[in-house]
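S.,

As promised, the adenosine-5'-monophosphate-propyl ester run. Input:
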Amino acid sequence: MKCTCIIYWNVSSRVWSIALFRPSNKGELMTPDNSKGRYPPSDEYRRTAFLKSADEYKKIYAESMKDPVKYWEKQADLIDWYSKGWKDAFTWNKKTNEFTWFKGGKLNVSYNCLDRHVRNGLKNTAAIIFQGEEDNDVRIYTYGHLLSEVERFANVLKKRGVGKGDRVAVYLPMIPELPITLLACARIGAIHSVVFAGFSSEAIYNRVADCSAKVMVTSDGSYRAGKKIDMKGKVNEVLEKETAVESVIVVRRTGADVVMERGRDFWWHDEMVKVPAKCEPEVMDAEDPLFLLYTSGTTGKPKGMLHTNGGYLVGAYSSYRYVFNYNPGQVYWCTADIGWITGHTYILYGPLSFGATTLMFEGVPSYPENDRFWQVAEKWGVDIFYTAPTALRMIRKTGDEWIKKHDLSSLKMLASVGEPIDADVWKWYHSVIGGGRCPISDTWWQTETGSIMIAPMTGAFDLKPGSAMKPLPGIEAGVFKEDKTPCGTGESGNLYLNRPFPSLARTIWNDHAKFVETYWSAFPGHYLTGDGARVDEDGDFWLLGRVDDVISVAGHRIGAAEIEAALISHPAVAEAAVVPVPDEIKGEAIYTFVTLKDGFTDSEELKKALVNHVRNVVGPIATPKTIQITGGLPKTRSGKIVRRILRKIAGGSRSDELGDTTTLIDPAVIDALIKGRN
Ligand code: PRX
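Predicted complex:
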């Protein structure tokens, strides 16, 4: 590559300086094949991709389906084991839906994410680039330095009595102490349970109490769009109730005044200097739990999905390798929060087990201005960018000029997660952010699956805007009708994953019966995803959203039942039904129908109080967009609320568009609901 050398007078440092200019990597443009509406990757991109052709994919996929266990054992070879002592790589009791992968194999996840890279020459390579909300707030952790911090914090946890199998609840903002805590837990065999920083104290309490956490890790506060947000105060509220928490480690982030309880609360920075620097990794069984992560389902109680050390890490590593085409020296940025599964697998465990450089960003796309993402991408020369459709819709709305202000020529690959990305947003993402050069991987997966299940491997396929395309090798996905016969080409149905794979959650913490009922009872032997899908004539998957009562607000999963339970706990509410409505930016928003107890009347004040009540009980992420107070709800004779009808009413349908209403006990309620619509 030709470089230009310029000698110039540096005004600020008052010295003659030399600058080397490398031509910017404009890259080869992807030329859409308009006849088919496809976007083939450029030859330049294909050359650097892990899978380079559809034939290569087909061969690996076919082999993986012929003998999935053998295939996954080969993937397991890509991580480091103390011993591969398993007798059967996979066991599955179909009666109890208990299954294991690599049981008897011994490993340590933090060793795989840190020590092995330090030993293999990456000691001084950046593992985590932390970009704080303020531009000059930057910390770069090399693999070597990250390992030292993790070892020390592992010793802090040990000093507080944390050992193998103990639960550590983590309520931290997006700061480096968050991944350090998780890796420290992994190092000593403790089970981490991260609670998203946007949850209210009641939601935190439910999660902390459910898993009987022994230690909590939190911070004094956090920054969000220039404001200081309290964190420790919420934890104090949680701990006013009875819990198993014995100690709290507190990171100083904002310097806010906080109440510390003597003997229970300890400052991170005080403790880190009091412990030995070295901490040997604990030898863990592949089936020992690595973490719990709570997610919403169709009932009011969030489910603690349990992921294991061996299977999860194999899935995280293997999917990261297939999907992101990471090449050494690149900067990879996933904009998710580590409080969600995307952050666990694709900010932390996937990239770090792979030896990649992962960028961790504390801020939001719109602060201090609407070009913050692009300014960060330009500043760090980001190569691979992974975000959610809701962020893209918001950014698109603010205008392309914010993006065009920045040189984004370092970008090589883009990806999306959390909800269906429609073709229009896909094309905009491709042309405006990707400069027409970057393939997009629309990755479909879930908290339960632990790693990406369906996604285009972008060096191998001509992309179709809006389609997540192909299952990853080792994953068999199928779309079935209600009667469990397979759907034909183009026919919509329920998406199932046939048989367990290594990164699938093993159970729901404390509730295996619910695990079986929720995921395995509809179609025994097949994992029910809760999503609708169809497969086109090329065998490509198109995801159609949830088919159950789970709402996806800005890509965050919230159970309708959780919000209903919160509403019903308000003294004025007799009954509540919550449904999603389409939202231009957030994908879906929360629409609530509420009937009041006698003695209460509809008023703007009451509606506001109900909104605040939900925010307090569940958290700001569950803020209802609309509260419609109504005299009654549409119910069947057995008393079941017919949400199908409420969804349509909330979405603006006329009475003749609601489908069959004859099964309702009181069809007259429909007119009142339509009339009262906000
Ligand atoms: O409905 C699907 C949607 O997000 C759900 C899983 O949510 P959660 O467990 O919070 O994990 C989100 C991040 C992995 C799925 O059941 N979803 C996720 N990715 C996609 C998607 N829907 C369509 N296309 C996607 N790429």
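The chain has a mean pLDDT of 93. The pocket of adenosine-5'-monophosphate-propyl ester is lined by residues 295, 341-342, 417-420, 442-447, 468, 529-531, 543, 545-546, 552, 557 (CB under 6 Å).

- D.
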